[in-house]
Amino acid sequence: MTAGDAQPGPSVTIRPTKREDFEAIIPLLQQLWPANPIDFAAARDIFSRGLANDRRAYFCACVGERIIGFGTLMIRDCLWLPGDVGYICDLVVDQEHRGSGVGSALVERAVQIAQERGCRRVELDSGFHRTEAHRFYEHRGFEKRAFLFSRTLR
Fold it and tell me: Looking at residue 95, what DSSP letter applies?
């Protein structure tokens, strides 16, 4: 975190995600993409595979037992660096808790995991329309350095 960032309250903890957390995480992800329905069976399968993969890390922010934030980090090979890159795939904080430092704590946990696993960089992507998120990431030391190109496969 940088100076001036809100710190999450002392009751907020960041911990590894468990299999039984799936039901609480889906509503958070739906806050990111309210117009896109989530295929629960497919999401559960992806979630389970991620928990079993040592090149992925799932972590959540909790107040007591209630999950109020969620993040994922994927470790990708990178030949040009050389070394691995930590890629933040998902990062969401419940809308009631945004602006309270929870997102910063989740980003810092992702960075810590990437460092522990020998990554040389941490990257992520964010939609063009999410200008507030862009400021959030830039304030935490991330820089815009590329466009993401995507192609749907059927």
Answer: G
Domain count, the chain: 1
Residue 32 within a domain = yes
Question: Which pair of tokens denotes residue 14?
Answer: 């960041």
Identity at 125, one-letter amino acid code: D
Contacts of residue 43, defined as CB under 8 A and 6 or more positions apart, other chains included, come to 22, 26, 29
Average pLDDT, the chain: 91
- Cβ atoms 19, 51 nearer than 8 A: yes
Structure tokens at 104: 């910063």
- Rounded to the nearest 5°, which phi and psi values hold at 85? -120, 130
The number of angstroms, rounded, from the C-alpha of 20 to the middle of its chain's C-alpha atoms is: 18
pLDDT digits (tens, 9 = 90+) for 23-47: 999 999 999 888 888 999 999 999 9
Domain residues for the domain of 93 are: 12-139
Q: Are 16 and 61 in contact (CB under 8 A)?
A: no
